[in-house]
Each structure stands twice: as C-alpha cells, then as structure tokens.
Amino acid sequence: MNYTFQFGPLLNYLPQVVSGLWLTLVLSFVGIFGGIALGVASAVLSTSPWKPGRLLVRIYVEVTRNTPLLVQIFVIFFGLPNIGIRLSPLASVFIALVFNNGGYVAEIVRGGIEATHRSQVEAAESLGMTYFQTLRFVILPPALEKVFTPIVSQCVLLMLSTSLVSAIGVEDLTGAAMIASSETFRTMEIYLVIAVVYVVLNFVFRGVLNIAGLMIFTRSRRRLLGRA
Amino acid sequence: MRTFGTPEFLFIVYALRWTLTLTVIAFVGGGLMGILLALLRIARSRVLRGLTTFYMQLVQGLPLLVLLFLCYYAPSLFGVEIAALTAAAIALTVNSSAFLGAIWESALRAIPKAQWESADALALTPWKTLRFVIAPQAIRLAMPSTVGFLVQIIKQTSLASIIGFIEITRAGQLVSNATFEPLKAFLSVAALYFAVCFPLTQLSLWLERRTARRGART
What we know:
heterodimer, A: mainly alpha, MetI-like fold, B: 218 residues, mainly alpha
C-alpha cells in the first residue's frame, strides 16, 4: 500500500464538521422525540375501539416499515413539489425522520400495550376512571416501561440513519464529510474520522437514553438499586 | 420530453433483479459470517468473545452509508477500483453479519443451560450437542427476527443507489430525471419495495405468533 494518510488538510474543515455534527444531533433529537410522540399516539389509536383509526394506523405503520427511509425522503423532497407542496431539504428530512421513526415506535409500543392484562383495564373501568385516565395511569406507564429497551435500540438506529439526509444535500456530519472529501481528495481520512465520531455517538446516545429511562421509570430504577 | 408511462415503470421493475441480487448476496454472506460470529460469541475463549463483541459493536455503531463509502473508497488505496456492486455487496454483508450474529447469539443463549449439561452427561461432543440439540431449537426461535432482518436488508440495498449502483431506487432517480415526474417515479419505487417487503413482514409476524403459541403450550 503506497498511500500516505494525511489528516492535516482536514483541520481546515473542522468548522464544517462541527456544524455538521450539531445538525446530526438536532436531526436525531427531533427524529427521536417527534417519532416517540407520533408513535405512542399511533399505538394508542391502534388499540382504540375506533375502527377507522385502527385501519389508518395499520396502513401508516405498514407503509413506513416496508419502504426504505431513503425512498421516503425522495418522495417527500422530490415528489411532493409535483402536487404543489414545496419543502426545503431540511424541512423534508425532519418530516421524513419523524414519520419513519413514528411507524417503528408505534409497532413496538402496540406490543407493550397489548401485553397489559385486560383485567387491569376492567379494574380501572370499575373504579370509574375515564378512558384518558386509564390510558395515562394504567395502560401507558407499564407498557412503555416494558418496551423501553427496543425503543432505545430503534432510536439509536434512527440516529445512524440520519446520515441518509446527506443524499439530498443536507449538510449533516456525513454531508460535511462529502464536501470535505470532494474538495481535498482525502476521502479515506475524512470517512475514517466521521466513522469514529458515529461510533462514539452511538454509545453516547445509548447511555443517555438508558439513563433517561431510569429517571422516568421509577420501578426499574428501584429494581436496579435494590439489586446493587 | 418523455412522460411517465409503462416503459418507464417497467424500467424500474427490471431493476428489481439488482435489488434482489444484492439482497441475496448480503443475506447469504452476512448469514454465513453471522453464524460464525454467533458461535464465537458463545465460545469458551474470552479473547475470541471480546474480539467478536468489539467487531459487532463497531459495525452496529456505524451508519451503513459511511460503511458503504469506506468499502467503496478503501480499495483505491491499493490502486484497485472496484465496481459499485462489489462495494455495496461487501458493505451490506459486513453490516448484516453483525446484526444477524446478534440475533442468532441471543437465540442460542435462550436455550436453557441444562440442555448443554444433559447432552454432556450423555457423552455428546460440544459439536454434536450444537448440531442435534441446541441448533434445531435455536433456529425455530430465531426465525421471526431473521425474516424481519431480511426485510431490513432489502430496504438497505436502496443505499447502493448513492454510490451509483442501478437498483430500483437509482432507476427511479433516472426515470424521474428523464420525465420530470418524480412523484410517480418514486411512488412506483416505494410501491415495489412494499410489494416485496410486505409479504415477508407478514410471514415474520405469523412465525412470531406461531412460536409464541408453541411456547405457551409447552
């Protein structure tokens, strides 16, 4: 191999890489929390007695889970202007990421809700709790706690797939790397650097989300502390 | 200017064979490597286990797109140019191996330890225990997730379009550029992915329910 690695020229691109990293963090943040909100709402709707709502969520979940995120981004960014909806690249990817993550989270949370025993809902009903009270105090807390680990995995995968936004020219971490690579021809160096950044981000996200989970769900916290 | 008609749609449909080719390569290659990784993860040697964990964590923490770029550009360090298909096949294989390895490892671990011990008491070699006692049960447990991951691989092949490999997403882009009708082009692409993935998703769900019912009975 007669190739000398030169990381020096990349230093000039530090500001772009840092702003790319920032955008990756913002995209992940919006994708994760927007997706969880949309996902939980969809999951609730998919277990509600209202039939059209259930059908709607079913279609939404199947469409998001059976088509690639890249194609979803293309349909929103390139396709929608055909019917008069013109979105900026950034707005398109925000919508695509929330839409995509929402579908996955909905399916995970539905599993958690269905695992809640029917008798608990009946007990809540007999106590005179309204539908929303039952949801808020009886159904959702244990359901979300049960599926918290798969949700964290899904959200970390979402963070990694934010790299796809670079395909329509959004300058996230990968987008910044593409520009730096085409201007310096130090392709291997720049991709190795951002590969390391992504691997670190992966562990940071996993750690932060798991800690957040322990702070939210008091029961698993007590179980963990009790064992220690 | 061309309009979006049957020939354009068929152009995308024909590109489906490349999507499927890539899927098969990644699934078979990733599967073989995944089996090896899963076995290494339950090996006795701590060094082997550690190295395997390192590899799996590394690959799982890397966006597939970055892995794809690394595979595409790395050979040029040695002065070799590789085809987009080769680069995509390698990247997808590496990526799938880590995830399939993780799925199969957890299936192997889900079999109670007592079964290894009783096979040992019957004087079965570790290899025979794996072949006749553990694997048949583990495979049944791992089936739903494996089919589920196959769907992931099909969707991930769309990334090969970014390095210029003509599978259905890239074919959609070409048609969209030629006809200026991106909505029809990309909706057709999405519909094709859906047509391939949806039956597999349903199969995965069916397998999962069947496994759950079996588990409840015993």
